[in-house]
């Protein structure tokens, strides 16, 4: 008999499932197919690097447990990491795996029909990374009497408000982030190879801190230098070493049980140019003022407008969004694809939301980043990571 390895109590998973079913009911969905691995983990605990094949959950309003479906050889992963009973674990035969002749959604469609759900309104994660056009075509062809609806963000919006135990995981991830960021800042010197810093940071993210370890984060450390900092998402250069005069951007996010705590900072090697110093001073001052403004009941677009007001008259501009909801995630990113701090987003901030306030500035030849992940509280917001908000310099 395998011994379960649940990260949370069964009641916590039941609470989450009830909230998802309530959202399904409000949106008129009787069945929901969940294939995003973060959403699978959120609802059942399932945690396997098996998302290169089709896997997911089938949730029905009138069934107490979801069905987990996945490759048969991954079934013990479901038995180990989920709270589901044996009859809810469906391992499909290997001939469905990456086949040119059949498709896993035929297996799923057959199960839905077997349960008598083939005439129901079924939600699918249409715009998710893990749901393809082929999957949709197979489902519609093999469930011709079903009605399909877009449920891309249904689970994500439930996830956006964290429980106390989830916040605990994020706080633990934040401690690992502090360690990893401190290590990176200390290591970056002229002559040091970028790959050495990337390797050390990755090791620190996994090693964790005293008392607990980390997971591989959803995003590899983003640590460009020099002219590569003029864009947002380049990683290290495998052959380059740091040079005097380099700007180095650090965007790191450590994870604890796949709950993230992202953070960005900037290092300059040498005497800081006046234009970079000005950008840094403006961004850090605006960041601090905006964090004081944030409170429950404020909308995402109001936060962005306040931040933009902090930049008025400074000559510094930030045309893209300045933040997003984050939390439980797998590759390729730690964002939840719900709240975005930008014009037009009328999402109301609620206690329990965790948001990465990310006012990155990318100019023609360099960039500057200084961000803060925060928790919306009953009266304002709380920074989750304790690390100095400034431009770090190495003038030696």
UniProtKB/TrEMBL annotation:
Any one Pfam family here would be Creatinase_N
What positions does the domain Creatinase N-terminal occupy? 16-158
Tell me which CDD domains the record gives: APP_MetAP (cd01066)
Bilayer-spanning residue ranges: none
- Domain called Peptidase M24: residue spans: 169-377
Gene3D superfamilies with a match to the protein in the record: Creatinase/methionine aminopeptidase superfamily, Creatinase/prolidase N-terminal domain
Specify the protein name: Creatinase
Species per Swiss-Prot/TrEMBL record: Sediminispirochaeta smaragdinae (strain DSM 11293 / JCM 15392 / SEBR 4228)
Q: What is the lineage of its organism?
A: Bacteria, Pseudomonadati, Spirochaetota, Spirochaetia, Spirochaetales
């Amino acid at each position: 008999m395998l011994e379960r390895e649940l990260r949370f109590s069964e009641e916590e998973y039941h609470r989450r499932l009830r909230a998802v079913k309530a959202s399904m009911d409000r949106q008129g969905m009787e069945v929901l197919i969940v294939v995003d691995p973060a959403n699978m983990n959120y609802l059942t605990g399932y945690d396997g690097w098996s998302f290169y094949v089709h896997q997911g959950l089938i949730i029905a309003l009138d069934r107490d447990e979801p069905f987990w479906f996945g490759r048969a050889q991954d079934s013990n992963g479901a038995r180990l990491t989920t709270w589901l009973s044996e009859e809810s674990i469906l391992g499909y035969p290997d001939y469905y795996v990456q086949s040119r002749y059949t498709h896993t959604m035929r297996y799923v469609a057959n199960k839905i029909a077997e349960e008598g759900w083939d005439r129901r309104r079924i939600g699918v994660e249409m715009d998710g990374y893990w749901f393809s056009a082929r999957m949709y075509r197979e489902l519609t062809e093999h469930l011709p009497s079903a009605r399909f609806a877009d449920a891309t963000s249904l689970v994500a919006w439930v996830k956006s408000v964290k429980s106390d135990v989830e916040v605990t995981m994020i706080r633990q991830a934040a401690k690992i982030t502090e360690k990893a960021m401190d290590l990176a800042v200390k290591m970056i010197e002229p002559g040091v190879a970028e790959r050495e810093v990337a390797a050390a940071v990755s090791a620190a993210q996994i090693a964790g801190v005293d008392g607990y370890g980390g997971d591989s984060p959803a995003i590899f450390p983003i640590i460009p230098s020099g002219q590569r900092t003029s864009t947002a998402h380049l990683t290290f250069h495998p052959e380059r070493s740091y040079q005097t005069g380099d700007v180095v951007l650090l965007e790191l996010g450590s994870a604890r049980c796949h709950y993230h705590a992202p953070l960005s900072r900037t290092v300059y090697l040498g005497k800081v140019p006046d234009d970079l110093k000005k950008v840094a001073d403006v961004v850090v001052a605006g960041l601090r003022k905006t964090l004081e403004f944030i409170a429950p009941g404020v909308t995402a677009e109001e936060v962005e407008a306040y931040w933009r007001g902090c930049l008025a008259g400074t000559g510094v501009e930030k045309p893209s969004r300045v933040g997003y909801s984050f939390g439980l995630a797998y590759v390729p990113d730690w964002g939840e694809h719900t709240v975005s701090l930008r014009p037009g987003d009328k999402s109301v901030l609620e206690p329990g939301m965790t948001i990465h306030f990310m006012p990155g500035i990318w100019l023609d030849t360099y960039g500057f980043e200084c961000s803060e992940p925060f928790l919306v509280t009953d009266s304002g917001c709380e920074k989750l990571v304790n690390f100095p908000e400034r431009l770090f310099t190495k003038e030696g």
